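ingest -> validate -> predict -> emit
validate: passed (alphabet ok, no gaps, 150 aa)
predict: started
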Amino acid sequence: MQVNKTILLLLLIITLTQGCIDPYYPEINDKQNSIIIDGTLTDKEGYHYIHVSRSVSYESPENTPIQNCTVEVIDDSGNTIHFYESEPGLYEQWIDQDFLETGRKYKLRVISAGSVYESLYETMLPCPPVHNVYYEIEKKKPLIRKFQRT
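emit:
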């Protein structure tokens, strides 16, 4: 009799946990063929990278790089840094510390197939200093509850 109660309880738990999961399919209008420009400019000397690609369908995600673009960063004094394409859709350039100043304004310009995409000027802000790095171990209680037999 005790075995039957245990089996019944186990079946009830399995049924309840499986019955609560409903798949979610978002309604996305992905018919647009947008350009995606992704990159970061910091105040640190070194290589800086800009990725240029095309948006894709939700059902079939894949990388679709855009090649042969003109990619450049322009400061508020009119100085321009031109990026070169190191692999399809990836544009890079070594930028010296002299060009990268906090408080100065920069914008990005990408020219692709005759279309010009240009950001507004943005002021480069200084990075706050990191005072310390640490971690904490947090112990959590298990999610399984113990049932008492009656």
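The mean pLDDT is 83.
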